Structure formats: structure tokens, C-alpha cells
Amino acid sequence: MARRALVLSVLVLVASCGLGCAALFRWWITPAPFDTHTPPPAPDYAELATWAAHPEQSDAADLVPPGSGGVDRQAEAAIDVFFIHPTTYYESEHFNAPWDDPSADEITDTGVMALQASSFNGAGRVYAPYYRQIALGGYFTADKEKGLALAYGDVERAFDHWLARWSGGRPFILASHSQGSRHAQTLLRTRFAGEEGRALRQRLVAAYLIGGWIPEQDLGAALPIPACEGPRDTGCLIGWRTLSEKAAPPTGPNQLPPGQTNLCTNPLSWTRAATPAPRTAHLGALPLLQNDRTALPPVTAGMLGARCTEGSLRIDPAPQGKGWNVLVRGGNFHVYDYALFYMNLRANAEERAAAHLASPGSR
After folding, report:
1. Number of other residues whose CB lies within 10 A of the CB of residue 334
2. CA spacing 20 to 30 A to 224: which of 12, 77, 293, 297?
């Protein structure tokens, strides 16, 4: 707990104090080269302890915001959800974190499962593996791809274990955030393409790959599924990265190359149109007020409108004050990609699940 508190305190300080602190922080979190590390032991996905969320255990993905009208329907759900968590390891001791690192797993549980993965528990049974994620600092090194490859290997093994042991041929949602969305893209490219991927594509309700870089030019080609164009489309892909209306476009080494445009789906309209969606379409956001495995805070509806432009989801007005500024720097609301649209996500996951189950040939 003390280690986690120190890491989060430093993250908040960096978010608030500018470029000098950011450079110092990058130095502090950057691990030694990949090949100097011995990889931590691999998780055994037959063990429930290796799953941050699983229908056979009580976890933070079971939570529902009070007074929201949401219901945890996992016990009777006809579909599954395979969720891949974002980066939650911010230290430099390991290039790839142990899957059971206490501070990383606490952030995964109280932050990600509670505030992100739980948005799908009204639509399906939520499965979310721990994995040997690449450390945040690993992204800023020449060995980034080695670390991502090790992490992806765990994700694919977890996916295969879910397929073989628990899925029972059911339809499913693929969902992710940030680093998790990088791994989800790799999974789509390697397992869903061609004739051998046809069965998985037919079972796919939708892929919510939020907070990642998804080149529009790859959709339907290198990425074997199209973008969703409406709120009831199935077998398709959804993605966005959240910025305030006045924020500068993201820059740095981990962006799309020039000439490529990031996929943007507006979660207030579930279209890719540039037309702004009004605040009246906003069903409710979750503030980052607490880290709790037992309860969520109430949601706030009608906070903001949103529009897709130049590959980014622009929000207006940008939320301010306690609960809405955690790790927000320069108008980049990446940490809030899920939380700002929590109730819209809940409603849409249920809507797409119903549409898929009503389609011919669905189980």
C-alpha cells in the first residue's frame, strides 16, 4: 500500500508540474534494457488467482454505481466479455511486471476493474487476466517491442484458456484500454483474420479498443473487422482517445506515424461522424474519487458534449475539480477514456449484445 501510494503521488506531481518533472519522471521509471532482466514467472491461467475479474469469484468488475439503474447481470448473461487491462505498473525494477505485483494489481483491481471493466457487467460475464505487462517506462526504450511481445504472449494464452475452458462457444465482447488495446489489436490481427478466424469473427459482438492507436487505414484489412458505424452494429470495432476541446494534439514517440488517422467513435452517438453530440446525450460519468473494491461513486450525467475530429474525441466542457483531474495534463483525459462515458458504455454494451443475440445464427 505504501509503495502504491508513493507511485501515485509522484504521478500526480508530474501531471501538475510540467516538462521538467516529466523528464525526471521518465528517467525514474525507465527500466534497464530488456535482456538484462529475467522475465517473471508466467501466470497459470487455470488458477483463479491469475484473473483480476472472473465470474466464479467476487471482484471489482461486479460493481454498479449507486442510483444509476444499472444491474450486474453476469449470473444470467448469454455472452462473455474478455477484458485486457491497461498499464498499471509504473516502476523500473522489472521491464515486464510480475503478474502478481502487489501495487500494480491493486491499481488494476481498484482502478481498472472497478471503473472500466464493470461497465460491461450488465451485458456479459467479465473475464480479465492479470499478465506480465510492460512497465510504463519500457515504452520509452529501444526494447519496447520485446516487452510488448512478452506481455502479449500472456494475453493470448489467457484468451486461449478462456476459449477452451469457459467460453462454451458463446458470443463475446473484446474490450481493453491503452496497453491492453495494443494487445487486443495484435489478437485481432493474429487470431481473427482469414478463414481460420471466421468462427471468432462470427461470435464477436464488438471490440471496444479504447485509448489505443487504431489506424483507420487498417480497418477491414490488417485489422480483419470494420469500424462500427452505429449503436447496434455488431462484429465491429470501436475506439477513441479523449482530449479537451482546447488540448494540443498528442506528440511523442508512441503516436501513429504521419499520414495515418486514428479511429474515433463518439460514445455519445456511437457514430464516427464529425457532428458534435450534445450534453443531453451524456448518460453519466464516474469521478476518480476513491480506490475501493466494494463500492463505486454515483455517476454525473449531462456533463459534456463530444465530437470526433482529426482522430481525437474532443470533449466540451472539460470536467474540472476533485475527481476529474487525476493525471490530466494539457487537456489529455486518457485516464478517463472509460470513466467519462461509463453509463453510455454500459447501455451500449447491453444494446449490442441484444442485437447480436437477435441476429440469425446467434446462439
Report:
1. 17
2. 77
Provide the residue type at 83 as one letter.
Answer: F
Cell of 130: 492479470
Output phi, psi for 219, to 5 deg: -65, 130
What pairs with residue 308 in β-bridges?
313
Query: What is the Cα 84 distance to its own chain's centre?
Result: 6
Residues 307/274, Cβ–Cβ less than 8 Å: yes
Are 69 and 147 a contacting pair, CB within 8 Å? no
The model's pTM: 0.93
What does the buried/exposed string (b/e) look like for 204-233 if buried means 16 or more CB atoms within 10 Å of the residue's CB? bbbbbbbbbbbbbebbeeebbbebbeeeeb
Per the CB < 8 A criterion, the answer to whether 282 and 301 are in contact is yes
Q: How far apart are CA 112 and CA 338, in angstroms?
A: 9
- In the numeric block, the cell 450534453 is attached to 279
For 28, what's the count of Cα atoms within 13 Å in the CB-facing half-sphere? 14
Which cell numbers in the block locate residue 223?
A: 485489422
Question: Cell triple for residue 177?
Answer: 484500454
Q: With a cut of 70, say whether residue 362 has pLDDT above it.
A: no
Distance CA 144, CA 56 (A): 35
φ, ψ (nearest 5 deg) of residue 72: -80, 110
Distance CA(275)–CA(123), nearest Å, equals 28
Q: Report yes or no: 96 and 150 within 8 Å, Cβ to Cβ.
A: yes
Peptide bond into 317 cis (omega under 30): yes
- Closest to 111 in 3D by CA, of 313, 346, 363, 287: 287
Eight-state DSSP code of residue 167 = I
Q: Is 90 exposed, middle or buried (0-12, 13-18, 19+ CB in 10 A)?
A: buried
Q: Tell me the pLDDT tens digit for each residue of 175-211.
A: 999 999 999 999 999 999 999 999 999 999 999 999 9
Grid coordinates of 287: 469521478
